[in-house]
Amino acid sequence: MRLLGTSSNRDAVIGGLLSMLGMFLRAESPHKLDQFIAASHRAGPPPAFGARPFLPPIEH
User: Fold this and answer.
1) pLDDT digits (tens, 9 = 90+) for 2-60
2) In terms of Cα–Cα distance, which of 33, 36, 35, 16 is closest to 25?
3) How many domains does the chain fold into?
4) In a domain, 59, yes or no
5) How far is residue 42's CA from residue 57's CA, in Å, rounded to a whole number?
6) Taking the CB of the first residue and of the last residue of the chain, which one, N or C, has fewer CB atoms within 10 A?
7) Do 53 and 47 meet the contact criterion of CB atoms below 8 Å apart?
């Protein structure tokens, strides 16, 4: 996040990061990518920025 906040050309930075991600993913097997996508769909969206995770109370 700091990289984007301090960049003078955020679009270029995001484009570069997505290009690097694409190059990384090309090296993975299609089966592994399918498993990752299925798991991410089951997990749902990430929590809002700054949200604290729910932690159940500790029983004594």
Assistant:
1) 777 778 888 888 888 889 988 888 889 999 989 988 998 898 887 777 777 778 888 87
2) 33
3) 1
4) no
5) 26
6) C
7) yes
Residue 12 included in any domain: yes
- Host domain of residue 25: 2-43
For residue 56, tell me if it sits in a domain: no
**DSSP string computed for the chain:** -HHHHH-S-HHHHHHHHHHHHHHHHHTS-HHHHHHHHHHHHHH-SPPPTTPPPP-PPPP-
Q: Look at residue 57 and tell me if it is in a domain.
A: no
| C-alpha atoms less than 13 angstroms from C-alpha of 47 in its C-beta half-sphere | 6
**From the CA atom positions of the chain, what is the Rg in Å?**
17
The residue type at 58? I
